[in-house]
Fold:
Amino acid sequence: MTSLPTEPSPSAANPADSMLLVRGIAGAVVGGIAGYLLFWALARANLVGYMIPGGLLGAGAGWAARGKSQVLGIICAVLAIGLTLFTAWHVAFQHVTFIEFLSRLHQLHLSRQVLMALGVILAYWFGHGR
Structure:
């Protein structure tokens, strides 16, 4: 009888990995809320902080996850894009609709666009963990 090597059966996802994502997303929510509130407070004082919402979203996710996950970093980057756009519109550009704000996004000053992009990069960097 010949013995053929058996392939390991694909098992279910590791429960520790799924808990890492759950903890990370919960931390992202808390960090995102903190980032929104800090951006709002800075805007009221006529200061600019366009990268803060995304950066705090990623920092919250990375801190709460207590591990390293490329998937969590990508999730944080996608969430940071939405949060950054919503926060900038809701706090600084309330006089136009959200769709109108998105259609005029390319008209924002370059420094604001760069700060928004840095916030998304920070969300990925901090969000993927240590």
